[in-house]
């Protein structure tokens, strides 16, 4: 179930390929399936069930998607500020220190949870089959990466990390800190810069969502990705450990 070192190295490329397939859904073309977006499909379903009017359901789904994107961006920025954006973006795993500060006092994997919440928001812009494909595959990829990283850290850091794992939940955050804070100075500026793509998606939902146009939000996602690639040049990569 653990990801290989090669999977970890190319994890961003793997995520990008999965997202592209989710948005393009080539199988929909082959099977001549409907091209409605998941956002519209969910709103129509809520309306058919009699729970909400279609217009209210459309706004509700938009709000939930925006909140999911926002939660993902906050979690990843919070985690990157304490762990270091260079470490977060590096192609190899690092195990020279244990960070038990910031979000890592509440859960062990805020970055992976943040990515999954981000995926739920993006899935609303995809066609239903693409959304299902993307959520399932990204979920599996995240779990494989998570197990690989935890195994690596346990081997590198030994008993202190195993004790940390026994106290702090893997993904579902606790309501209170589970361990004493280690001294780590957060780098908020670099944390935000490293997660610029995530914040760009949030802004895209906020700016274009109220026009009820998934295509405009998708354009914002693409622009955000481009900006984040430029920003990566300003995030220093640490030495492997």
Question: Any overview of this molecule?
Answer:
The chain has one domain. The two termini are 24 Å apart. Helix 5 packs antiparallel against helix 7 (110-123). The chain is an all-alpha fold and 241 residues long. The radius of gyration is 19 Å and the shape is globular. The protein has helices spanning 5-9, 11-24, 26-31, 38-48, 54-83, 85-89, 110-123, 128-157, 159-167, 188-194, 196-208, 214-231.
Shape summary: globular
Uncertain regions: pLDDT < 50 for 5+ in a row? Answer: none
Give Rg in angstroms.
19 Å
Question: What is the number of strand segments?
Answer: 0
Count of DSSP-assigned helices: 12
End-to-end Cα distance, whole Å, is 24 Å
What string gives the helices and strands in order?
HHHHHHHHHHHH
What share of residues are in beta strands?
A: under 5%
Task: Identify the notable features of this structure and list them briefly.
mainly alpha; globular; 241 residues
Gist?
With 241 residues, this protein is mainly α.
Fold topology:
Elements (H helix, E strand, L loop, with lengths): L4 H5 L1 H14 L1 H6 L6 H11 L5 H30 L1 H5 L20 H14 L4 H30 L1 H9 L20 H7 L1 H13 L5 H18 L10
């Amino acid at each position: 179930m653990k990801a290989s070192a090669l999977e970890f190295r190319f994890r961003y490329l793997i995520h990008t390929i999965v997202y592209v397939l989710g948005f393009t859904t080539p199988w929909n073309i082959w099977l001549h399936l409907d091209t409605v977006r998941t956002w519209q499909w969910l709103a129509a379903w809520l309306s058919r069930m009699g729970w909400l009017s279609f217009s209210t359901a459309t706004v509700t789904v938009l709000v939930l998607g925006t909140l999911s994107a926002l939660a993902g961006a906050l979690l990843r920025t919070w985690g990157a500020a304490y762990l270091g954006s260079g470490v977060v973006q590096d192609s190899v795993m690092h195990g020279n220190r244990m960070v038990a500060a910031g979000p890592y006092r509440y859960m062990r994997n805020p970055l992976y949870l943040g990515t999954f919440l981000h995926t739920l928001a993006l899935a609303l812009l995809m066609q239903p089959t693409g959304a299902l494909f993307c959520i399932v595959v990204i979920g599996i990829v995240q779990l494989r990466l998570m197990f690989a990283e935890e195994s690596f850290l346990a081997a590198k850091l030994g008993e202190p990390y195993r004790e940390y794992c026994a106290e702090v939940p893997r993904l579902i955050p606790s309501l209170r800190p589970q361990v004493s804070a280690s001294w780590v100075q957060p780098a908020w500026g670099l944390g935000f810069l490293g997660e610029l793509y995530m914040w760009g998606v949030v802004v895209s939902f906020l700016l274009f969502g109220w026009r009820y146009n998934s295509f405009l939000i998708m354009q914002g996602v693409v622009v955000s990705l481009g900006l984040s690639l430029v920003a990566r040049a300003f995030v220093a990569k640490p030495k492997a450990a």
